[in-house]
Fold this protein.
Amino acid sequence: MMWRRGGDSPAQSSLRCTHIDSVNAVAKPYIVSESNISRNLAGTRRFLRALFSRSQSTLGAALVAFFFFLALFGGQLAPYPKANDQSHDARVSPTLDIGSLQLGAHPFGTDRLGRDVYSRVILGASSIFRTAGLGTAISVVLGSALGMAMGYRGGWLDELLGRVIDALLALPALLLALVMVGIIRNLDLAINSWQAALADEVTLLVIAILYIPVVARVARSAALDIKTREFVAAAEIRGESSAYIIFREILPSAIPALVVEASLRFSYAIFLVASLGFLGFGAPPPSPDWGLMVNENRGGFYRLTPWALEFPALAIALLVIGVNLMSDGIRRAVQKGGA
Amino acid sequence: MILFLRRRFAFFFFTYLLSSLMIFFLLRVLPGDPARVIAGGREATAEQVEQIRAELGLDAPLPQQYLGWLGDFARGDWGASIAFRGADNRALISERSINSGRLALVALLLSVPLSLTLGVVAGLSENKLPDVIISLLTLSVVSLPEFVTGLFLINIVALGWAGNPLAEALGWWFPASSAVPANASFGEMLPALWLPAFAATLVLLAYISRLTRAGVIEELKRDYVRAAALKGIAWRTVVLRHVLRNALLPTVTVIAISISWLVSGLVVIEFVFGFPGLGSLLIIAIERRDLPLVQAIVMVTVSLILLANLAADYAYAALNPRIKL
């Protein structure tokens, strides 16, 4: 373990020893049948019970569910559903309306342009969930397919790709992300229209590309372990194709490890989206991006409208803590032998 | 041991080669056409682009360009900056890296003793009150993004402290990191380093302390610990003489890996505090589309990280008698 490491999360390095255990604990899906499905259901139920038995995990899941609700229905919930609605005239000085005559009109106040901070915080949930969620989903799907194929097929390609992945993971994620942002930001000077379209989804793309190798490494080590089992040998003797074996025999057993990895990646993705937004490399200025809102309202504006910085920062903090608690809980629940 | 070191060196070499290839090809080949970017984007005429292409040697075959670029980098010829109007990239980067190095040094001096202590205390009291408190603390404080804690430190601690009569009486204050001249001496810079270094400490705290805790817990379960305890050796002696000696050995590597974490954190922290370091230079370079400067900064950073990792492997091999494969 000492020499297969990279700049990765603390949770992950402890995970690497436990993956194998959790994978071993899974019932062997020798025959794909109804009994197998009911066993999976029982496993899921056991997993959920283990997850919600810890109050920290429940709190995390509740926080994530709350923000997910805002992300889904933010458009209906926000009093000023257009993110750039200026309820006050821009010349009117920004106010925090708690205790004033307009109580309830702007519970989080308005920013220096007269935009309702409450609405913008609510509307911002959908963009962070969309970017981090889609980016994680893409990386998990592609990364686990790649990793399982590498682990199952082996050979020189696996060897080479494995080295490349190790090398990539030795570099800090934010540095790689910034390099990619630097490249993509230059694309709008290029002529192709598809390149310009790419530039609109910088953060999503960065997350997907950045996490594919990370997920692939986890999927690879899971596949290496699973492929030694009898049911894989049986499928090989039956003459099944590699694709069948990877997706129908190996994948079901690798799911616990992949679920843990996906939740961990999602929590890092949220963090990265917020950081890139704050650095000014996320969504372009008028959009209600939390990181961007924090950046726009720091410095001299902080004295004028502190609430325009504090509420988006609080939203980021709560969501990041929630996602962390939840992914920590998922890891513990899977280790207990659920799913 | 020779085999281990050779393998680690091969990994270092391969990673370095791969990163330099990536940095070169991604930044020079992918973004459309660097000559066009330098000539001024879409408005540039074909002749202007061709002229710049010839000047920069971009008409040579790619492998030749790559070797030429790598050679230039090794010789210290990193070109002139676009963003800083022709300033020498090497002068810019070396000044900024010294500043970032100072910040990193103060951060490591603060975080390593603190997180080792927390990790050992948590590990010795597994699942008891101190452990629960420490893990909640590290989990919640550290899961906050650096810019949130950074802004909190600036707006609440530094500004609150500034108006505080007690602080004024004592003459203690936190000067703005953004006001520090980039070429200040270490002594002049130190007062401005505390707050950003503290923010960076929080980045490392959870990482190092959690791994230390895991190491202590693992070591406590070993047979020799039980044997020593059954022999009647005082628990304090068992812990200090035997457990910690073994449990703390891997932290050499952990600290080296955490440097890669520190780099990510420092980019954001330097930006928040306006500190004139390498990270804030990188942000400026990307914002102003100065690709040669971005290339040089990333190459320098990657070199430092990989060298730190290699040094840690060698230190680990020297300290651990078990690696004699």
Summary: Chain B touches chain A through 60 residues (CB under 8 Å). Residues 149 and 199 of chain B are 6 Å apart (CA to CA).
